[in-house]
Amino acid sequence: MSKVIVITSGKGGVGKTTTSASFAAGLALQGHKTVVIDFDVGLRNLDLLMGCERRVVFDFINVINGDARLKQALIKDKRVDNLWILPTSQTRDKDALKKPGVEQVLDTLREEFDYIICDSPAGIEKGALMSLYFADEAIIVTNPEISSVRDSDRILGVLASRSRRAEQDLEPVKEHLLLTRYDPKRVERGEMLTVEDVLEILAIPLLGVIPENQSVLRASNIGAPVILDTESSAGQAYYDSVSRFLGETLEHRFITPERKGLFQRLLRRTA
Amino acid sequence: MTVATPSNVQKARDPDAFKLRGGSFTLLVLQLIDLKDPNFFHWLLDKISQAPNFYRHSPVVLDLEGLADSGPFNFAELARRLRQHQLVPVGVQNGTEEQNQGAINAGLSVFPMWRAAKPVEAPPAPEEVPEKAAAESAPTQAEPPPVAGTGSKVVLQPIRSGRQVYAQGGDLVVLATVSAGAELLADGHIHVYGTLRGRALAGVDGDTSARIFCRSLQAELVSIAGHWLVREDMDDHLIGRSVQIYLNGDLLVIEPTN
């Protein structure tokens, strides 16, 4: 049974597209046929993060409007098997998203793919609503910071009331929390909310904690999902999160500050 | 005068372009007695200048009961002159058939006759005005519309930021957390068996005996029958505690319950 998963947050700039790229790649790496769709019409970024911006001919809006077939718009990822990208239009805007069109595209994709990842734009208006409407599960990307938490709370309310599952009284959308840009040192200094603080307010299961890391920007610059950077802690945390999503029980790494040993601290002082 | 508009809303297919919902508002009533008085607008200006902030842009219903015997008059002109005084005429009440038709032609609404209008006295001093005005304004940002006359409501799920729940005609009981940015309304009492972080407005239709109960007070605003208190004005030692909130005369009292 294929699953539609929306990556959403409410707040902008918290790491939705970064997460969509790595999550989709992660699922594909573990053998599942996956497609990731950019719902941020007019402000598309997914193609950049996936490194396929030079191969976009037709896009999601073309398919919805019937100007192109789905197969013409889908881009196969060059690095990871089982992974496809459906980019969106940069010249149109969110009004181009029409519910019956989106539904038809998703229904067609369900026949071929195990997982369909919907990269939501920020906000709670049409683009975001359209991306979450048909979702079976949702990953709420949140930074450990009060306005992000407030907005995530809001988007949870929207999911509970304006998704198709809510409107048709079906089993509710399964919610997962992904805490991103987590900096354990700042948490220790009291500058950032702790995992517990966020869980107390949002009260949904924790899927993973992705540490703040420079590798994320590097990955974005070279157009490769950070999960492919096996040395980066962020990449590893994404890998763990995908494994947890698929049912594995794993401890959360990278949530306590690194304690440098005495030797390392001596070295630093004399340097 | 309070007007409640009917809210028949079906759950299934709402259009994307708008949402229709019921709203309840308290409106100023201007009881017209002698429109022919040459000093009419002079007295009106005088009255308005006693509390200009209260009256500015105030929607007003024109009570025509005192003009039952006089003939039809120019509503459009009257409305124009009232607007010059920054009042916003929205409708008429207790008029004759002919007067009602005249009002409709001038773009005013006709309010039901069976509701007797109560004259609203202007507040004695302008400093007290902001609180009164805030107390009479209707709650904004509705999402799920209130269904008329269902009475008490029990909510088991957390109430997320931006959601609004209204127990019309009854009490509201919430067995989970109420997020910051959420709004609870009830004509009766409000009970939150969890943390209250949002806003709670009890006794919204004027019941001063309504109370608010919660396990952990972290509310942004609480109100009973229009008398409100924001978090900033709540005593620090009460925050996070299990409390009940009730009205004592004009004052909101917050009392720990354990």
Describe the model.
The complex is a heterodimer of chains A (271) and B (258). Chain A contains 13 helices and eight strands. Chain A has helices at residues 16-29, 46-50, 60-64, 70-73, 99-112, 126-133, 146-162, 164-167, 184-188, 195-202, 214-222, 233-245, 262-270; strands spanning 3-8, 34-38, 75-76, 83-86, 115-119, 137-142, 174-182, 206-211. An eight-stranded mixed β-sheet of chain A has the order 3-4-2-5-1-6-7-8, sandwiched between helices. Chain A starts with a strand and ends with a helix. Chain B is an alpha/beta fold and 258 residues long.
Question: What's the layout of helices and strands?
Answer:
The complex is a heterodimer of chains A (271) and B (258).
Chain A: E1 3-8, H1 16-29, E2 34-38, H2 46-50, H3 60-64, H4 70-73, E3 75-76, E4 83-86, H5 99-112, E5 115-119, H6 126-133, E6 137-142, H7 146-162, H8 164-167, E7 174-182, H9 184-188, H10 195-202, E8 206-211, H11 214-222, H12 233-245, H13 262-270
Parallel strand pairs in A: 1-5, 1-6, 2-4, 2-5, 6-7, 7-8
Antiparallel strand pairs in A: 3-4
Helix pairs in contact in A: 1-12
Chain B: E1 2-4, E2 24-26, E3 28-31, H1 40-48, H2 52-55, E4 58-63, H3 75-84, E5 87-93, H4 97-105, E6 109-110, H5 129-136, E7 153-155, E8 164-167, E9 172-174, E10 183-186, E11 190-196, E12 199-202, E13 212-217, E14 221-224, E15 227-230, E16 243-248, E17 251-256
Parallel strand pairs in B: 3-4, 4-5, 5-6, 7-9, 8-10, 9-11, 10-12, 11-13, 12-14
Antiparallel strand pairs in B: 1-2, 13-16, 14-15, 16-17
